[in-house]
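Reviewer comment 2.1 asked that we show a complete input and output for one of the modelled complexes. We chose the magnesium ion case, as it is the one discussed in the main text.
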Amino acid sequence: MAKPVTRFVCQSCGAVTLKWAGKCETCGEWNTVEEETIAARPGPAGKAATGKRVSFVGLSGTAEPPPRAPTGIDELDRVLGGGLVPSSVVLVGGDPGIGKSTLLLQAAAQLARTGKRVLYVSGEESIEQVRLRARRLGVSDTSIELAAAVNVRDIAATLEQSKDAALVVIDSIQTMWLDSIESAPGTVAQVRACSFELIRLAKTSAFSLVLVGHVTKDGSLAGPRVLEHMVDAVLYFEGDRGHQFRILRAVKNRFGATDEIGVFEMTERGLAEVPNPSALFLAERRGNIAGSAVFAGLEGTRPVLVEVQALLAPTPSGSPRRSVIGWDGGRLGMLLAVLETRAGVRMNQTDVYLNIAGGLRVNEPAADLAIAAAIASAAFDKPTSPGMVYFGEVGLSGEVRQVAQAEARLKEAAKLGFDSAALPRRLAHGNRKLAAPEGLRLEEIGHITDLVARFAPESGSAT
Ligand code: TYD
Ligand code: MG
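Response of the prediction step:
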């Protein structure tokens, strides 16, 4: 009989070492390295195990698009790429209390209403607690089969008998536990082994498996970062707990695009879909305040308008502060440097606070122009014109560059009642005419100095 193999695994990053250490060499975390024992499997009759031949095929052949079961929640289906794919595994991550269980119970209920079999395994909450939530969501009458269980051996045995299910939800993977592994639930070893067992089952059955996972403060899935590689799709449910709305974002999707978002609003009766996020993000905007500009952004295929706010304050002493919520801090530093060097806006004794209103996280470089406008507006204490949206990327020499999907952005702006747009000059597009919606005035900005001139007093021109 072969000896069991002992190895040491960092519970934070999953790095494997042969010796125990107080500090993980790979990620630098302290007290995260733990011992794991793996029983080695001997080959038949003591011989080294030999594998079977693997057959190779050509690249051409008929590949059908995967069949999908829409959950009936459009915002979720969009992020999934059209619906749940049978035999696929989706990991839904997010901070505790953000609404993962609520979302999944609602999706499960919708699916159950279409006559499909849905199993919901809760490892965190008791049957009573889940029932209470179901009552609150008004889904108590659906045919969801609910179980409170954490033992993966039992769950797997049950699922073997339930191969006709359409959806299985495991809430959450961090509470699951396999008795063959010695570590506690939630450790890398447990999470990995439990997921492996459940994923293996999903792959040999027709149900879609949804695993719920909690996220740590730094944004990584607690422990199971290793898990991201094992599943077909990773969705993050994010949002500010102080705000009503939540954003579901795909960070990995083998069956769809990864830049789509779904927007929800947490209400008294669960999560409501927000089909028009722009209206929501702009709802609390006050016009005529210096330091605010509207960015015509794009999230996946959907245009989204958001308000960008900048606040400047004199630095009390020492080096100036830069504080950013919802955007990249490094990019703000670059933009400030461009504003200072190319357009002469002095900011070396000024603290800069930047906020994407409403809690949305913007990743597009196209936001540069709107952010520069908000900063310039704050610097010269002159409001941007209330009916104007901004988009364009700013380069290091101060030039304003083209961005994708200008037409979609303009259409959304017109739809929400904006009357003008500041956008890059159409150099790159040559003589192709931009199809702007009727009544929307386009103001081309070729260089950052043109933008600053709209706010600086000496230019005297209106914005
Ligand atoms: P929950 O789904 O339990 O979060 P997670 O599973 O991600 O930990 O959501 C918990 C929060 O949502 C809780 O603070 C209460 C709030 N909530 C509502 O505001 N309305 C509702 O209808 C429900 C069910 C929850
Ligand atoms: Mg939960």
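Residues 50 and 258 are 40 Å apart (CA to CA). We note this here for comparison with the apo prediction described in Section 3.2.
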